[in-house]
Amino acid sequence: YNTYIMTREETKTCVGKGWSNLLDEFFDRMKEGTIVHCVKEKFGGLRIDSYGADTSDLEVEIEDKSLTICEECGEPGKPREGSLVKTLCDNHAS
Q1: Are the C-beta atoms of 69 and 19 separated by less than 8 Å?
Q2: Residue 1's pLDDT is what?
């Protein structure tokens, strides 16, 4: 079982730039020994998969916040249904 360890900057290439601050918050608050191996958008929200130190509560908190922040620009947003669910502000939803 081979897992790639993602850096803070690498995680930001996996989702829209509007969620960069959420990823920074996760990295700033995660416990020592945490290894991030996957970051993605799923069902309109940010998903962080990590192991090592227990970060499940922090992951849920950041993922919940992502459902209120536009993935494109970081402004307030909400999940929008289309061909896919995306969390977007009014501007990026139109």
Answers
A1: yes
A2: 45
Q: In the chain, which stretches have pLDDT less than 70?
A: 1-3
- Count the neighbouring beta carbons within 10 Å of the beta carbon of residue 53: 12
Question: How do the residues of the chain divide into helix, strand and coil, expressed in percent and rounded to 5?
Answer: 35, 25, 40
pTM for the full model? 0.91
Give the position of tokens 């897992």: 3
Confirm if 66 and 45 have CB atoms less than 8 A apart. Answer: yes
Q: Where are the beta strands (DSSP E) in 22-90?
A: 35-42, 45-51, 78-80, 86-88
Instruction: Return the pLDDT at 82.
Output: 84
| Torsion angles phi and psi, residue 48, rounded to 5 | -120, 120
Find the distance separating the first CA and the last CA of the chain, reported in whole Å: 43
